[in-house]
Fold each of these.
Amino acid sequence: MKSALLVVVLIACIQATTVSDLKDRLSGYGDHPFSSSMINLVSMNMKTGGSLNELKQLLQQIKDELIALTQLQDQENATFTRRSQVDLAKLQATLEQAQQDLDNQRQEQTSLNNELNTLQTRVKEDQAALDRNSRGSGDAQSRLDAENTDFAAKYQDYSDAILACKEAQRLLMNLRGEGASLIQLTQDTKSNLIQTKENFQKIKEILEAHTKKSSLTLFQPIIEGLAEMTTKVNPETLNNVLSLVARLITALQEGQDQLEANHKTQVENLTRLGDDLRNEKQTLQVSLATANNRLKEIQSRLNELDGLINISNAIVEVTQLNIQDATRINELEDQEYSNQKVSRQTEIDIVDRLIEYINQKLSE
């Protein structure tokens, strides 16, 4: 061992002293094996007349190694503790799972014993529900017709709005292309702007009747910008209105797409409802016919559950014993680590006393 080699080197470096002085210095550690070894080795080396400074350096090296060894033991103990905690957690999880399996298996036993009667009762209830749902088939068709009518009207509103926006966009792009800037407008252009503004106002009122989309907030600044341009065309206002119109077109197209998607979903749901009503009666009739076969399956499963419950009970018992064993091992390991830590600290204290002794000799 490295510490043993350092002690051998120590023999050639320490000045002479007496065994009695060293024993007095380490009187509190007389029963510790490390204390006796250090007294013998140091006394022998001090008789050879070695350098006290070199002796002090070697003692410091021994102390550093002891501290490093203590830190290593702390790390190893921490690693062991973490692993032990993981192992215990796994055992605990196994135990909890086995107990949960037992609960589930016993609950399944009760459920299976009642399933046949429950099934027969449920079939009668489902038949009554099916009769009621069948009477609602006509209502489902009426809802589908109303959905189609409402969708067509709203879809056309969006189309009219998008078309008006694009026409306004062409008009404004033409104005920008002509370089109109703070000049007197022609009567035709002014009329077109006024008509466009009125169109936007009408479309806004129509859309407000069936949507709360945030895109509606874009209408008002567009209308105000068009009103301003009926007297003069300011490039900044023109560009701003064009930007708002472009945003509005995008928003309206998204709204129209969402409307169409929602309509498609509604149609699919209503169509599926009719299909479900037609299929449910046949399904329930088949369910009742298979009840006797299901009873045989239940009895087979109950026999299987008896074996599974026995297995789960055995797992619980074995796992509990394993947890007890692991806990005892951890306790023993903790005690061993504690004893080693105390012993190592004692060795460090002994070396500290020797260093103090050397410092005293150096100061004499």
Amino acid sequence: HHLLVLYKKGVYLSHTGGKMLFWVLGLLILCGFLWTRKGKLKIEDITDKYIFITGCDSGFGNLAARTFDKKGFHVIAACLTESGSTALKAETSERLRTVLLDVTDPENVKRTAQWVKNQVGEKGLWGLINNAGVPGVLAPTDWLTLEDYREPIEVNLFGLISVTLNMLPLVKKAQGRVINVSSVGGRLAIVGGGYTPSKYAVEGFNDSLRRDMKAFGVHVSCIEPGLFKTNLADPVKVIEKKLAIWEQLSPDIKQQYGEGYIEKSLDKLKGNKSYVNMDLSPVVECMDHALTSLFPKTHYAAGKDAKIFWIPLSHMPAALQDFLLLKQKAELANPKAV
């Protein structure tokens, strides 16, 4: 009799347990569906919205300006050079405006913000895309001087902050969006030089800005592209800068690294070519979502390498990061020659 009762209880419990599991699974599927659906909800009219993009001479900024112009936005594209501006105008509609801007020149930034204010009027600025950036010198830390660190930090960090502070009143007016283009180099120190510290700092600025702007209904998003084939990452320019620095190095450092170090680094780089994304559109798709979704994300990883390798690695223990990243580096000839 007792056995029968226990058996029935067991059947009952497994039955209710199965039911429970079914409901939990159903709830999870529903949550997943609603989450995906939420990400697809878009803002209404874009044809009356203004967006300002920096670094439009080439790369992500150039593709973004052309893409958002085609979509119907009023694009104001900031270029560093006259030639970049002329080429972009030739490929876009009458609606698109260009402006020459050096983000490291505070007066230039201030004048540009005033000009943008006159362009957008009462509508304000729906989108600010801080995309302008330079790599600076990418080389081992003990090869560099303080001046080598200055240029990327001036452009990538102080330039971005300067543009943001000057444009912020216009974005607040529109209850719009700020999109900061950082890098996987803002999550992992992949290479020596000023680029990585500048991007780490952009991440910090982005996060404090996001929290400060929440009360104003302004969304702030950060895009973290992996390795993409742009002028920024032109291997020829990177090697030229490295060679120029090598010539200036002390005999001690040259002895430690060895004459063939740059060549060996180049061979390692060639082995990693599969990492490099040739198509720039994933970055612009992230910008698009951050601009037009009713629920933009706070962070976007752009590129397969960023999603599968760099961003997951950034969450791993330092020992594992060091092991995997040091495998990418060329061996030194004689590190004991100090």
Amino acid sequence: MAAGRSEITPMNIYRKGINNRMAFRCFFRTVCLFWLLQFATVRSDITDGNTEHLKREHSLVKPYQGVGTSPSSQWDFSGSTLVTSQYVRLTPDDRSKEGSIWNTVPCFLKDWEMHVQFKVHGSGKKNLHGDGIGIWYTKERLHPGPVYGSIATFHGLAVVIDTYPNDETSDRSFPFISAMVSNGTVPYDHGKDGRSSELGGCSAEIRNKDHDTYLAIRYSRGRLTVMVDVDDKNEWKECIDIGGVRLPTGYYFGASAATGDLSDNHDIISMKMYQLMVEHTEEEENLDWTKIEPSVSLLKSPKDNIDDPTGNFRGTPLTGWKVFLLLLCALLGIVVCAVVGAVVFQKRQERNKRFY
């Protein structure tokens, strides 16, 4: 036997097998731990409702104290809105109604998340109901108009739950949830269901549900995310996720709804506002956020959505989940190649050693 080479015995081969299995188990546990940590990070993107960060001055909850027209009220309402101990009904299931409820306290949070529990229900059958609900963060408040009970030209953010297709050429499925940011120059085109100015959206079955239905709107570090929980699974599903959004502070939160020739009950159960604890650069902290003009930096125009039957904005950047999955697949591919290469190399070495 050549000098310097270890003797090949069954025991040595067995020990090498044990070492390979231990190395694989160690790698497998590391990957699992990495996955769990990443999963926990992603799920924490949407707050679990920590009351420590609940901003009561911007929240509407049962039994709706502080709602009214008195100077100390934090919420004001108009139109057909009916406030009960269990819900705030923006419109009844009657034709040609519109109502709204607005926070009277301007919001000066840079990073926030709004959870809306709502209920849309009525006697109308498929496509024989309408019109929908608008959730607003705008400069204007208590201005009735043609867009779900509010004005079509506004400054700020609108997230719309549209239950009736006004555009007969549309091939998307309704109800449809979409978002729009405006600086007061581009109106919401109600006749086209807002498609020319929307940032993205998704279909969601939200009518006549026996369980609770929720919408979450998150704005943080220039990113707008809209999530829904409407399937009674107690989990959020992404609807819209887009970066490059600029929203000022000092605007008002509100909700409105309207009916036309068709109708529905449009109820708000709660609106809970959470402050997100996010660190900003010194330059961002010194910026006067009240003077920011609402805008969105897009690689493509929102009008590109007109050709997209899904309604999803095709220029939306990769989300955290997608980036993580791509990196995980690449990592697993590299590791598999390395393991296969190592096994092949080891077998060749063992085969060569038999000649000594």
Amino acid sequence: MSTNSSTVGQLLLQGSACISWKQDVEGAVYHLANCLLLLGFMGGSGVYGCFYLFGFLSAGYLCCVLWGWFSACGVDIVLWSFLLALVCLLQLAHLVYRLREDTLPEEFDLLYKALYLPLQVPLQTYKEIVHCCEEQVLTLATEQTYAVEGETPINRLSLLLSGRVRVSQDGQFLHYIFPYQFMDSPEWESLQPSEDGVFQVTLTAETSCSYISWPRKSLHLLLTKEQYISCLFSALLGYDISEKLYTLNDKLFAKFGLRFDIRLPSLYHVLGPTAAGAGPESEKGDEEVCESSVSPPQGTPTSLQQTPPCSPSPAATNLPAPPSRARMSRPNSGILEIDDFPLISPFGFSGKVAAGRMP
């Protein structure tokens, strides 16, 4: 250890090995190269930090090549500087390739930011979903039909990107579909993977529309393979169907002036087609359903019917008579007329709930 320290001390005491120092400073290219290298080594992290770092280093080493070729006249300076500049340029090319590989088309990028990014879905997972639809954006012209009632098979799942789609049944308007909503989520949920079915509604484009579509078999294969994507689609489809249900509930309120609870299966018996020809017994049942599920708002005419007094027992002869009970009579003003408001069975296909298509 003492021998090494003595050797270093001797070298320092001997002074510089240079016989003579140059009186002239190096040219501007040499100083520019060092400034660029200094700026390059001040670069940060991340993708754009790497672009900054390798960009300035490439320019600095290229200036060193020029300085070694024209001023220093040293082959080793030229070769090493050229090699370092080449490595930095290759790293820049690799970064550009990675960025181009991660870039999505504009429509899919907007879809990711609007629907998947708020759920913190990883970009790589989103790419698998996009790859399943083959990265194709389909279009619908104005008044072009996406599905025809009773004819179009349920063989895909589509998501509207732009425009507006009208949903109708037997020529009766049901609701609209807006951008970033599924076009056929009720039909998708109504069938098992091994089952086949057709649309019960007609979907018509009211404006020029664009949408993406996943083939049924390919999407089922992806959902079976990836549990995370399966849970993601379950949440998105459930939210989409609930939004359609709430829209239809507001439509019922606007038409009838009464707010129905769409979760009640008995609502179908009140408004369904079987109530039109059911006779007095069904009307009595409908009245009882109306009494139990809705309450008349202020200003709604109601008829008071006195309940027949029951025979008092000897022990309760002095008790007051039971109060009369207000009860809604079946209106004749068309509030619950079936012909004015046709609807689809809420039980949908094969006894399953086809929610979202009940007006």
